[in-house]
Write a sequence for this structure.
């Protein structure tokens, strides 16, 4: 018996039902002092509780593992998305049990424990489903799955500790990449927030010769093929392919600002992965450059099958830095590694017009050789503050300052456009959609 308790006492827990029964026995003993007719009832009740306790102990601690628990997750988690987690529980006891499951999830979620309660019939298997939404990239450690089992008597519970230790990497958002694939090939994009783009003129890259159908441009009729075939034949053209599409991500302190749990850097990374996916579906080459006070990672543009994985492997560990970004180094890097004209999408954030003007000379130099799109962010809280009615003088002051900053952001867009640089000013939650929309528009307008 001593060895038994030494082996199992750490996993033995007394329940509220047992304490209630013992309390009832104590009350009976107290009442016996005043009511002699109770006789041996307190002793009988206490003995009954003791017998039931040992019966409960025996049926729960019979040799063997009578409960089986497994956790099922994906090999990696998607940042900023709801990731499904499944726990499967099997009851091998010959009777129904009440089970409490505590899953030790990574500390980054700031949730002490995921706690579930359920009842399992004999030989029954049940699954628990829940979602986790990570807001930081990196590695997440899952711990034990603690399972507390009680018999129908419910006087004690036995704890099973299942080693569910697992380290999962959190990658840039990839769960919703499927919808962006559809956006790349569909002309009906309004359900994703993407407007239809009217093509200007025709692309110059020949695709095929086909039979004329009503609505085809008569200027594309191939008269030689028509003469040979005996029916109208037209040339069809497709968007130019194999263009260099580089996402340039600023990792400086301006990208640390949080929004709905994610930093601006996380939004930029998620948008870069989606844009790379769409660009490769359009048969362009996708590449990556990160920078802060120095140039960080460089992934040369390519469209091989493993390119997206290479980009995600680089991005999932990237973190913001505390110094200002060095655009002079960026210009030198762009000139040295990107020999062919391409589309450069620069994700950054300017909080003031003076900050933009300090970097503008380098942006103008880059724009001389490539089609440059600068993407920066609206401050949603300032926008909300500017629209809320002011209640006092201090409120008027805050509203005026907010409107000033919002107006400065619009001036930045005009300043960039005046120097031939495209600009996207976007709320963080619409970043991916707006960037892909701009890319598709530029493809349709044959600017890349």
């Amino acid at each position: 018996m001593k060895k038994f308790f030494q082996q199992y006492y750490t996993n033995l827990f007394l329940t509220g039902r047992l304490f209630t029964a013992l309390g009832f026995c104590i009350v009976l003993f107290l009442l016996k002092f005043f009511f002699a007719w109770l006789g041996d009832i307190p002793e009988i009740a206490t003995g009954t509780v003791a017998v039931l306790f040992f019966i409960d102990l025996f049926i729960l601690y019979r040799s063997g593992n009578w409960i089986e628990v497994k956790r099922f997750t994906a090999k990696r988690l998607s940042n900023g998305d709801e990731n499904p987690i499944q726990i499967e529980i099997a009851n091998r006891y010959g009777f129904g049990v009440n089970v409490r499951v505590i899953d030790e999830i990574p500390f980054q979620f700031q949730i002490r424990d995921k706690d579930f309660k359920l009842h399992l019939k004999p030989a029954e298997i049940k699954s628990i489903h829940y979602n986790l939404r990570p807001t930081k990239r990196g590695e997440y450690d899952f711990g034990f799955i603690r399972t507390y089992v009680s018999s129908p008597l419910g006087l004690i519970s036995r704890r099973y500790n299942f080693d569910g230790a697992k380290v999962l990497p959190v990658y840039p958002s990839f769960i919703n990449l499927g919808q962006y694939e559809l956006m790349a090939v569909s002309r009906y994009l309004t359900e994703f927030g993407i407007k239809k783009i009217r093509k200007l003129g025709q692309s110059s890259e020949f695709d095929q010769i086909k039979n004329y159908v009503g609505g085809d441009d008569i200027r594309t009729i191939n008269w030689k093929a028509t003469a040979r075939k005996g029916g109208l034949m037209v040339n069809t053209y497709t968007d130019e392919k194999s263009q260099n599409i580089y996402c340039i991500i600023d990792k400086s302190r301006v990208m640390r600002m949080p929004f709905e749990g994610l930093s601006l850097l996380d939004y930029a990374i998620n948008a870069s992965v989606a844009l790379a996916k769409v660009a490769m579906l359009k048969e362009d080459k996708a590449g990556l450059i990160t920078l802060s006070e120095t140039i960080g990672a460089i992934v040369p543009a390519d469209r091989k099958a493993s390119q997206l994985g290479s980009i995600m492997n680089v991005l999932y560990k990237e973190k913001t830095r505390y110094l200002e970004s060095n655009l002079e180094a960026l210009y030198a890097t762009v000139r040295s590694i990107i020999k062919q004209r391409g589309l450069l999408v620069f994700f950054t954030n300017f909080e003031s017009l003076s900050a933009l003007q300090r970097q503008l000379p380098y942006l103008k130099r880059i724009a001389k050789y490539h089609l440059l799109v600068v993407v920066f962010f609206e401050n949603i809280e300032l926008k909300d503050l500017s629209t809320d009615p002011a209640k006092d003088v201090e409120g008027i002051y805050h509203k005026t300052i907010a409107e000033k900053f919002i107006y400065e952001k619009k001036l930045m867009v005009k300043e960039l456009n005046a120097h031939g640089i495209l600009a996207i000013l976007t709320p963080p939650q619409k970043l991916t959609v707006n960037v892909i929309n701009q890319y598709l528009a530029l493809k349709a307008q044959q600017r890349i």
About this structure: The radius of gyration is 33 Å. Residues 393-418 form the longest helix (26 residues). Confidence is low (pLDDT under 50) at residues 187-192, 194-202.
